[in-house]
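Q: Got a minute? One more chain.
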Amino acid sequence: MVDLRYWIAFNRTPGVGAAKLRALLDHFGSLQAAWQAGEAEWKAAGLDRRAIDSLRLTRGALDLDAELKRVTACSARVLTWDDPDYLPLLRSIPDAPPVLYVKGELTAADRQWAVAIVGTRRATVYGRQAAEVLASDLARSGVTIVSGLARGIDASAHWAALKAGGRTIGVLACGIDQVYPAEHARLAAEIAKQGALLTESPIGAPPEAGNFPARNRIISGVSLAVIVVEAGDHSGALITADRALEQGRDVFAVPGNIFSRSSAGTNRLIQEGATLVRSAEDVLEALNLRLVARQAEAQAVLSEDPLEVAMLNLISHDPMHIDEIVQRANMPVPQVSSVLAMMELKGLVRQTGGMNYVLAREGRAEYVVD
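A: Always. Here it is, folded:
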């Protein structure tokens, strides 16, 4: 069983980031063993002098039990790299945060169908309207809206998703017990009820300037794509777009007035190759998410049909032709085709071309029927 106290402790240790933590895990086998080791062992694991000094000082000052209580006291939970609930898209980025603090609930839809909407804090009427229309239409289609809880475009996107009855994730640049800006306390509370707040920053961490670029990589990291609605030439939203490109995510941009400073960054993104977006339909089409709403509804009432279970235990992440599935399942072709069509609607399997099928979800689950 994972002892979260040690993950929290290392997360509070300055100078020990994802790369060093991975090295410690590889060397010691567990963070408990790493935390309790001596300086010579830390050096052997690859830590430099600065990291060793930082770890020694933090270990001497930190009450592990008290730190864990601080998390539970603010109704949050901790996810680590090894947690099955850790967002799979985020886990795939090179600098995935070892620890995530979460307030609210993360659903299957959040893990599969999240799209970020970001932009300037100094939004125009046009920018707010564009963000609201895109967020509400995407949310009604079953897409989770991700943003950074900032003023302007971020807040407009969050509120629109909530009002549409959809889900939204707010990524913070401070501790999960903090709200920045302070006037967004009500917004944060509503997001926690109808989505989730998450951050890599420890409990009590203030919203320091250096936290925001790191926060932006998480916004793009949990998302299939990033939509930049309105951004000036030096907007932080452009950093999110850059991180998205580095992570292999799609980048969309809403075109704006060529005379408006607020649209200079978005227009340049389009000029440099970002996909111009005029409506939610453009995004759904580009990301092949037209059936998201129907898939979400179908997954919510997932059948216990033994035929589906049999298919799930046959099909893997390696393409399998329908003829082979028919043969191995020992079922008639029309029945297999019908079951596969329903499973595809539920997002359980997908075609890779030429009537070949693979599992659509990450990992390999064990499916059984009573």
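A: The two ends are 28 Å apart (CA to CA).
Q: Perfect, thanks.
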